[in-house]
Amino acid sequence: MKVLTVTGYKPHEMNISSINDERITYIKETIKRRLRVFLEEGLEWILVSGQIGVELWTCEVTLELQEEYPIQLAVIPPFDQQDSKWPEGLQEKYQLILMEADFVQLLYDSAYKGPYQFQAKNKFLTDKSDACLLLLDEDNPGSVKFFLEEAQSKSEISNYPMFTITPFDLEDTAQEIQNEQGENWNSN
């Protein structure tokens, strides 16, 4: 596997309303741990559309991992100015990520025109990747279900592995981090 699409929930789908929510730390650490495994196996590219939430956090993690691994980041927004209605802090993060990404290309060189742009984005991301990693609770798929449906369709006709990060994985990471912090606090 050389190219991995990563996607998942938007912050509001996880009841995250602040860019300083501590759960983001656990999500990013879980993503980082998963990506490290793939990087050790030869992963070269992370592919995202740049939407808020899991995808932007993945971008931040990927840029951090570039200090250790020769991983590249491609951001393929479905349309121009996808961040125009986002909170200012997220717009700034998004613009910085676009500047630091190794490859950025709009899927449609226009502003939002309709849901077909999101459908085309999902198809493009699955077509251009060897596998996907989804932060997903199958009981509550949220907006991720549209990408999941496209990935499942591709998986039925070709070898397209779909990896998931579940709420249980996030809980495990949170517990491990809290245990490590407790041990560090006790040793001081």
From TrEMBL:
The residues forming the signal peptide are: none
**What is the protein name given in its UniProt record?**
Putative phage-like protein YoqJ
Cite the Pfam families for this sequence. YpsA
Q: Which organism is it from?
A: Paraliobacillus ryukyuensis
Q: Which InterPro entries match?
A: YspA
Give the superkingdom in one word.
Bacteria
